[in-house]
């Protein structure tokens, strides 16, 4: 059966036209089985709504609705809330995409029918209120023009926040008081590239109305099979060899090709360095905030270093039952708190945000999953409850499952974070492998969860899949001011 054409001359009505033809080739399904009956729509309510009201519940009445498959244009996200033979209840998100008529298609083995739903335009001067963040990593620029192009494309697509990475391995992509220039820029650690990536990003972002946050990796210290070379200033691992994480067998985390060697949050010097880096950035640059990443452990086998074990022994004097897992969570939390305190002393208006693990705890019993709380000792919800972060961006880097709540279901995880987080929530999504429809629906599903916005990883992925146009046409069709601004 051909799809009903979408056009502005559609008649909007509660009683809808029944599809003119039935799918052929239905096979040997029993004529009285629910799957073989053709769905017939009698009415839908409401038939029209504004993006400011999204999501809405649509009630469709008719017959043969119990077993239908529901589909819609890319910019509408329909989710079935309940169904019977004569009644279908949908929740529909439609903050993205153009105004005008859209269809919702109901399909069974016996045939199909379509529902007309009209999206009203926003009034002149209206905009949505949501944060639209884009991660731009240190691997995604090499020249000043690269940064300008990234900022222009982000603004053109409808983003209003850029997380611009300036610290990867205890190095700097800006003029730092504490750490050497990154080797990515010149091939030599500590060599001045002759330009300032963060300075350019802030300048170009301001021209385009973008909030720019300095994205810094907290505890990843180096990558490669050999130590960092001598530089001015010295790299942290050369100046402070005791800052490295230690395994449970008391061996120091080695230098390994293709992998990161981590700094331990149990050492007061590591926490102080991170806090000073954040404060230095907001003091030197007109950034809107600092964005923390890798603010965690690499796994349960780390870090059994002397300062961490001493801190645990001291804490157990007051809490005899305190476990080392909880101690490590507290050390990470302490680092977040110290970073916030130092940053706010330098700039009281700067925001502290964090990219955090996409699964907080495995409450559904999914197999073989890593969790923030138990595996990498990142208690992001404690940070939220203590008020030491302004924004959390859980990296929900999975797809929307066919059945709600299945293993790694993006929809369930978005709902779980939205229900628990009190501060601003941006649901992070992983673009590689997505097409325009999937990207739009992930963003719409984050909206339906009640998040204040989305964070998209990443700039290069949007380029590689040529997703700028569908992003602007569907997910970010309407202008938006940042949540909280």
Brief overview:
The chain is of the alpha/beta class and 485 residues long.
Topology (SSEs and partners):
Layout (H helix, E strand, L loop, with lengths): L39 E6 L2 E2 L6 E8 L5 E3 L5 E7 L3 E7 L6 E9 L2 E9 L8 E2 L1 E6 L7 H14 L3 E7 L15 H4 L10 H11 L3 E7 L2 E4 L12 H4 L20 E3 L5 H17 L4 E5 L12 H11 L7 H23 L4 E7 L22 H7 L4 E5 L14 H11 L3 E7 L5 H14 L3 E5 L1 H6 L3 H8 L4 E2 L4
Helix pairs in contact: 1-3, 5-7, 6-7, 9-10, 10-12
CATH superfamily membership of the largest domain, which one?
Glycosidases
Radius of gyration: 26 Å
Query: Could you give the count of β-strands?
Result: 20
Structural class: alpha/beta
Q: What is the arithmetic mean of pLDDT? A: 92
Backbone shape: globular
Largest sheet: 8 strands, parallel, barrel
Give me the number of helical elements.
12
Q: What separation lies between the terminal Cα atoms?
A: 48 Å
Helix content: 25-40%
Strand order of the largest sheet: 10-11-12-15-16-17-18-19
CATH architecture of the largest domain: Alpha-Beta Barrel
Please, how many domains? 2
